[in-house]
Amino acid sequence: MVFIIDDPVVGLGLLRTARLSGYRVNVIARRGCRWLRWTAGCEEFFEVEAERIEYDLINVIREYGFDQESYMCLAAGDIATGALHEAAKNLRAGTQSVMDAESRGRISNKASFAELCTELSLPIPRTWVAEHKRDLEALAAQPDFLFPIIVKAVNVGGCTEARIVQDKQALTDIVHDSSYDFAPLLIQEFIAGEDASFSFIAKEGQIQVGYGQLCSGAGVSFPADAEIYTYAAALCQATNYSGPANIDLRLGDNGAIYLIKCNARFWATNPFSYLVGLDLIAESGFRPKVEVINRTQYVDEALYSFTNAVRGIVAKGPLSADKALRYFRSVFCDIPGYLFTQLPASRRLFAL
């Protein structure tokens, strides 16, 4: 198996998932990700220039001898995912599910995702798009514009560029902030509530496996929600989506559900899938399923936390002993990987 990594945080999650499921992985990563070689799932590690992953991936895979039918290639990061999709049609090696770039771009771009949700009558926060930050003040003058809002870049992954804006003065501060030079910008109504997500693998518009995920300071749980599943299924069908994806959601204080964006790739928190007994890598096509699962949504209402796992070991808590052991294995099976997740500052030391 080969992982192509341009986003080290997503790559870390995928490597931890591989280790939990018993896989050893050959890694091709962009320079600057050397600390990933310390994760327990890493077999061999190769560094290349980031430009080669984006523009010359097929030759990189061939140079290292991985273009053989016995290998399966998976990608971590938006650039690697797009490059692998482009190279897949000319590779002998297997790859994660492939879809056309236009459809993938439509669901992964924040602005076009909002448009798609509107077309499908799926719930999203009130949304505006500004081609440049100088347009923000004029936008705020519209009669239907309300604060607070979130301002974020349309084409930048993660949340490092996102800003919560409480009033017009804070919006003006963004306009005059020379360090904030993203464009275009997505502006959305700020929804008071908590974050959640729905993660899945789809093929030709149909969800194969998926699970809802709710993280908080108290732990992580996997609640059942038919409404969220229906929204994800509608998006997959409308775009004929194939591959892994993660939809970010906001659960409003008023009980309403809002779709925020879709990461059309593997996601950083995918090791949590192990807690519900899901082998994401097998589901992505690495090997035939051992058994046929008669459901496409994995659910576990238990709250996974260190405290509950300790109580579960002595049969006094909400987790069974089996679930508690699964939780501890997710921590101790890959100590470096867990350390990198909890203490990002350690990555630089291991890179040396």
What is the second-level CATH architecture of the largest domain?
A: 2-Layer Sandwich
**What fold name goes in the CATH topology slot of the largest domain?**
D-amino Acid Aminotransferase, Chain A, domain 1
In total, the number of strands is 16
Mean pLDDT: 91
| Fourth-level CATH superfamily of the largest domain | ATP-grasp fold, B domain
Beta-strand proportion: 25-35%
What is the CATH C-level name of the largest domain?
Alpha Beta
Count of individual domains: 3
- Specify the number of helices: 14
Characterize the largest beta sheet: strand count, sense, and whether it forms a barrel: 7 strands, mixed
Structural category is alpha/beta
Helix and strand element order: EHEEHHEHEHHEHEEHEEEEHEEHEEHHHH
Form type: globular
> What is the helix fraction of residues, given as a range?
25-40%
Distance between the termini: 26 Å
Radius of gyration: 21 Å
What features would you describe in this structure?
The protein contains 14 helices and 16 strands. The protein has helices at residues 8-20, 50-55, 57-63, 78-88, 101-108, 110-119, 136-140, 168-175, 226-239, 280-286, 306-313, 321-332, 335-342, 346-351; strands at 2-5, 25-30, 42-48, 72-76, 94-95, 127-130, 149-153, 163-165, 185-189, 193-203, 206-216, 219-222, 243-252, 257-263, 297-298, 300-304. Helices cover 35% and strands 26% of the residues. The model has no long low-confidence stretch (mean pLDDT 91). The protein has 352 residues and is of the alpha/beta class. The strands form three sheets. Strands 10, 11, 12, 13, 14, 15 and 16 form a seven-stranded mixed sheet that branches. A five-stranded parallel sheet has the order 3-2-1-4-5. A four-stranded antiparallel sheet has the order 6-9-7-8, with helices on both faces. Helix 1 (8-20) runs antiparallel to helix 13 and helix 11 (306-313) packs across helix 12 (321-332). It starts with a strand and ends with a helix.
